[in-house]
TrEMBL record:
GO terms for biological process: regulation of intracellular pH; sodium ion import across plasma membrane. Residues 1-18 form the signal peptide. It is found in: Membrane. Residues 2-285 form the Cation/H+ exchanger transmembrane domain. It comes from the Eukaryota. This is Sodium/hydrogen exchanger. It is a multi-pass membrane protein. The lineage of its organism: Eukaryota, Sar, Stramenopiles, Ochrophyta, Bacillariophyta. InterPro entries: Cation/H_exchanger_CPA1, Cation/H_exchanger_TM, NaH_exchanger. GO terms for molecular function: potassium:proton antiporter activity; sodium:proton antiporter activity. GO terms for cellular component: plasma membrane. The chain crosses the membrane at residues 73-99, 114-142, 163-181, 193-217, 229-250, 262-281.
Amino acid sequence: MEALLFGALISAVDPVATLSIMGSPELQCDTLLYSLVFGESVLNDAVAIVLFKTFHKYYNSEEILDGSVIPAALFSFFTMTVLSIFVGVSLGLLVSYIYKHTSISEFPKLEASLLYLFCYLCYATAEAFGLSGIMALFFNGVVLSHYNSYNLSTTAQTTTEQFFATVAVTMETIIFLYMGLSVFTGRFQNWDIMFSLLGLLFCLIARALNIFPLSLIANCCRRKGENRISLKTQCVLWFAGLRGAIAFALSMNMPGPNSDSYASATLFICMFTTIVCGGFTENILTRFGMKQGLDNDDDAHDDFTGVENLISTESPLARRLSADLQERYRSFWHDFDDNYMKELFGGDRVPDRQAGDYELSEQNDLYDF
């Protein structure tokens, strides 16, 4: 059970460490690469926390995690995930509805303050029900960005954007300070160097066994020539698997007599990946042509074509049917979103049906929640 707990926590790729490096304006990271790293790191953290909590239930339980209990554990894992998403989406829609159908925009200070409190309410609600607060907060932010950001006044848009950015930078600094101080204040009486090195090695192997097959599956669901995950991008994704605060925080909650060994090994892996892998990020991006403005589209297409031809067995008819289904789904969602969802919750209107009712303001184009 300790091995399962350690595997769950060490698999968390830290978005703070990764995105603080990838998101640096000086690096000019490729947009697709940044989006993939962002989505993977945030959702990966949430899934790791949920999985850790699921395994933690069985550590001191009289019930042994054997073959007969695995279905119940999987059901608990998926239930916690789905309910966390439901809490985040539901509260996001509720907040958007309140902002859309009230005159709160006439009070910018109250408007910005309530938005911050509603976000905290989402996190606290999920944690109170034993769910994943991070996953609920992430989907809450997606909903608020899509709908509620257009309901805010100009003053509130500017205020919330600067406020959340300031808080984010402050929290990143505190997290890295906490991890750095833990090197000198932590308990390392039971630090096993061989275990730490093997943990780092198997983290690299396991990440490669996930990145490349999943990227291939993702490319099969993407249109040819549109946002393909090239082999170079996959290599950078594999290299960008930095571990950080989430993994270390979970390791501090490890039960049992070997908790010091797990905490020290996790801290070693976090420090190594952040300093070594993070320090070479710019060189890797330059070497693989993953910076904006570099002409790497042809190479990116060529290095994937060979792999696609070797593995793909999909017929032209199947590809056409898949493209038709994707187009119909997108068209249905956009129509439903414009005609029903945005009428209730707000959002960016499409000015092609009733020009008088769908006027875009410059403030909405500039605002990014």
